[in-house]
Amino acid sequence: MSSDRVALDWCDLAVAGVRELKPYVPGKPSRELQRELGITDVIKLASNENPLGVSPLAKAALLGGVDDLALYPDGSGHDLRQALAKHHDIDPACITLGNGSNDLLVFLAQAFLNSQVRASYSQYAFAIYEIVVQMTGAQADVAPGHAEGHPMALGHDLRALYQSIGPDTRMVFIANPNNPTGTWVDGQRLEDFVASLPPHVICVVDEAYFEYAGDRGLGDARQWLDRHRHLVVLRTFSKAYGLAGLRIGYALSDPGIADLLNRVRPAFNVNSLGLLAAEAALKDDAFIAESVALNEAGLTQVSEGLQSLGVRVTPSAGNFVLARLDQPADQAHQQLMQHGVIVRPMAGYGLPDALRISIGTAAENERMLVTLAKVLGH
Ligand SMILES: *Cc1c(COP(=O)(O)O)cnc(C)c1O
After folding, report:
1. Which residue of 94, 108, 206, 310 has the fewest CB atoms within a 10 Å radius of its CB?
2. How many CA atoms lie within 13 A of 284 on its CB side?
3. SS3 for 234?
4. What is the Å distance from ligand 1's center to 56 Cα?
5. Contact at 8 Å (CB) between 172 and 190?
């Protein structure tokens, strides 16, 4: 073997789609800021986590699972899939479990996209769509969002999204409501959109914030599955169910699609504590009701508070708001952090004047508003 080694640029060896990828930038963890600033009193309103924490039923189930951690989890997730099948009145063969719904976005891309096909999503859509499409080498068609001034400014424009679809389009992604804008599309209009797609265009409707959306008219895409075989519905335990740290999400789809997703799904992708906690959390209607009520009150508190500071707020059906400062938001973001308040800057989404702020407890919301008032010089 030769000992003269040429320095390799590993990028030259990487597959084309990966070469151009930029890693996803998550919200800053509270502990990281605590370490950096030497302060203990940090609040994180940056990742749309449930401020009430973990459901008591899930917590109890978790304790019962600790003794089995030496064993591999049930790779088929049988018990959770049965519970979900009952919850959604659907055949378990229609359910695919993921390590968060992020996992399912990856499986969908792996199973259906390659460099010969295209995928569509809206400008300001959830950032993971871009990553999973790029990863496969597929071309992305990004439809413009609604214009400023529209009631759902920056949100998904179904007409523009429809126009982005061509003969090579294999997949379209829609988050309802969308993250980071919080905006939503009417359920009937969305089902009409799904119906209008050619059957070879798989339509992924991502309902990560389903429980929070309430009666705003988004509908329930699960109810449309029997009529549209090319529809895939994503749900997660990371948001209202308060289990973001355990990474459990799932897809509901035609069994033929689920079969393909399960072929690319790694063995044991979902861990045993996550399976147990999700099954228990699914039964905790009281916790969901409490979480949703807290969020509704918080949405009002935060939206009104921001507006009184002269900050524009996009309507939201999720547990967060997009705050438009109408000036570069980077300084406000940094200064909020200096005061121990973590929110999410949006420059990476092409919105340098915006912050995405998750809804916390009433006290956290108040602290964020008081701190922002100070930062903005009110
Ligand atoms: C948070 C979020 C998800 C869920 O991610 P997990 O991997 O399930 O934690 C999916 N889609 C959107 C739009 C989200 O905001």
Report:
1. 310
2. 24
3. strand
4. 22
5. no
**How many angstroms separate the alpha carbon of residue 374 from the centre of ligand 1?**
32
Q: Is 272 in the pocket of ligand 1 (CB under 6 A)?
A: no
Q: 49 C-alpha vs ligand 1 centroid, how far in Å? A: 10
- What is the distance between the alpha carbons of residues 332 and 361, in angstroms, rounded to a whole number? 21
- Whether 238 lines ligand 1, by a CB cut-off of 6 Å, is yes
Q: Under the phi-then-psi rule, with left for phi > 0, alpha for psi from -120 to 50, and beta for the rest, what region is 324? A: beta
Nearest CA to ligand 1 atom 4: 101
* Mean pLDDT calculated for residue range 226-245: 98
Cβ–Cβ under 8 Å, residues 118 and 139: yes
Query: How far is CA 163 from each of CA 41, 61, 99, 120, 151, rounded to the nearest angstrom?
Result: 49, 48, 33, 10, 21
Structure tokens at 274: 């996550």
Q: What is the largest CA-CA distance in the chain?
A: 71
**What distance lies between CA 52 and its chain's CA centroid?**
19
The residue whose CA is least distant from atom 12 of ligand 1 is: 208
Ligand 1 in contact with 126 (CB < 6 A)?
yes
> CB-based contacts of 16: which residues, under 8 Å, 6+ apart?
115, 137
What's the start-to-end Cα distance of the chain, in Å? 69
pLDDT per position as a tens digit, 254-295: 999 999 999 999 999 999 999 999 999 999 999 999 999 999
State the DSSP string of 71-135.
Answer: SPP-TT-HHHHHHHHHHHT--GGGEEEESSHHHHHHHHHHHH--TT-EEEEETT--HHHHHHHHH
Q: Atom of ligand 1 at shortest distance to CA of 244?
A: 9
Cα-flanking dihedrals φ and ψ of residue 366, to 5°? -60, -45
Give the SS3 label for residue 142.
Answer: strand
Over the stretch 200-224, which tens digit does the pLDDT of each residue have? Answer: 999 999 999 999 999 999 999 999 9
- From ligand 1's centre to the CA of 5, what distance in Å? 43
Residue 14 in 3-state DSSP? coil
- Residue 189 C-alpha to ligand 1 middle, in angstroms? 23
Q: Whose CA is nearest to atom 10 of ligand 1?
A: 208
pLDDT of 2 reads: 55
Beta carbon of 120 within 6 Å of any ligand 1 atom: no
